[in-house]
Amino acid sequence: MTSHSHVHAPAHHDHDHSHEAGDFDWDALAAHLEREAEIQAPAVTEATRWLRGLASGAPVGRVLDVGSGPGVIAGLLADAFPDAEVVAVDQSAALLERARTRSGGRVGVRQADLPGDFGTLGAADLIWSGNAIHHLGDQQAALTALAGTLRPGGLLAVAERGLPVRFLPRDLGLGRPGLQARLDAAHEEVFAAMRADIPGSVATVEDWPAMLAEAGLVLAGSRTFLVDHPAPLDLPARAYLHVQLSRRRDQLGGLLDAGDLAVLDALLDREAPAGILTRPDAFYLAAVTVHAAARPAEVAR
Ligand SMILES: C[S@@+](CC[C@H](N)C(=O)[O-])C[C@H]1O[C@@H](n2cnc3c(N)ncnc32)[C@H](O)[C@@H]1O
User: Fold this and answer.
1) Helix (H) / strand (E) containing 51
2) CA nearest ligand 1 atom 18, residue
3) Is the CB of 113 within 6 Å of ligand 1?
4) How far apart are CA 161 and CA 76, in angstroms?
5) What's the pLDDT tens digit per position in 88-110?
6) 183-229: per-residue pLDDT in tens?
7) Annotated domain spans of the chain
8) Which of 36, 174, 179, 289 has the greatest number of beta carbons closer than 10 A?
9) pTM of the model
């Protein structure tokens, strides 16, 4: 999650926890989300240290990662807050099972179909939510519900947007320069359609600090953490980009011209020297923005 991957699992809006969409490839999604989170881990680790500093003084006994996916980031939260109970919260039992096993039991899991299940999460001193609020129809209502889950003095940290990932030179020696900007523009169309399709979707100005304030919280700050892996990339990062490009080709095919589609095919060619799996100039550069805000401590009378 990054927000820029927008890997979409099947929507579960029917509050039926007894099954998951049958033919969906959860293992592939889990592996992709895990790789993405691992690539971003150094930046997220910095973010967790910032949050630890913000929380200093107040005991952090329970931490939620809301929309955790397969739990890489929940594990980083457990590293940063070793004395806390850390719980990964997601609608997907399959992703939560990955979170449980990869953490060796360090991270608890709780299946929740949001927004319906917000009331079941239990009180927390720190709530992290990365690239998940944008899957909910009413983003302001989601923040307000999370704010209500915080103990007095607790922190809510929302990682949404930042900057889209860049991984290729402007002129990559294939097709018209500027491919990544066009992919990003097409992706914005798909993202907007995804949001419009969510039941109960509410358009809102996505001013995250203002939305946190509207939820009754006191802003602690917004910080951006760079994810900077210069070329040459290691194989796991290349494999991630290969999957990401093929997902983009499927998602955006109708929005791209024939020239750009041909370049995507060339980048996806597993054997070609210009393919993403082999080319020496592929890098990974992104920025993760985290907005943090605190629930006011109760005033003693
Ligand atoms: C893009 S992933 C982000 C994963 C992780 N937070 C990260 O940043 O790597 C979005 C996650 O939100 C979960 N999610 C989406 N809609 C949800 C809902 N209505 N209730 C609970 N979880 C949801 C998905 O199952 C998925 O794991």
Assistant:
1) helix 26-55
2) 114
3) yes
4) 20
5) 999 999 999 999 999 998 999 99
6) 999 999 999 999 999 999 999 999 999 999 999 999 999 999 999 99
7) 26-294
8) 36
9) 0.93
Find, among 81, 113, 100, 82, the residue nearest to 11 by Cα: 113
- Within 10 A of 242 (CB to CB), how many other CB atoms are there? 17
Output the CA 143–ligand 1 centroid distance in Å: 15
- Report which residue type is found at 150: L
**156 DSSP β-pair partners:** 127, 293
Distance in angstroms (rounded) separating the CA atoms of residues 225 and 204: 25
Give the pLDDT band (50/70/90) at residue 8: low
Residues pairing with 64 in the sheet: 87, 127
- With the C-alpha atoms ordered 150, 3, 233, 27, is the resulting torsion angle positive or negative? positive
Report the alpha-carbon distance of residue 300 to residue 56 in Å, rounded. 20
What distance in angstroms lies between residue 155's CA and the mean position of ligand 1's atoms?
Answer: 20
Q: Measured between alpha carbons, how far is 246 from 253 in angstroms, rounded to an integer?
A: 10
Which residues share a beta bridge with 290?
159, 223
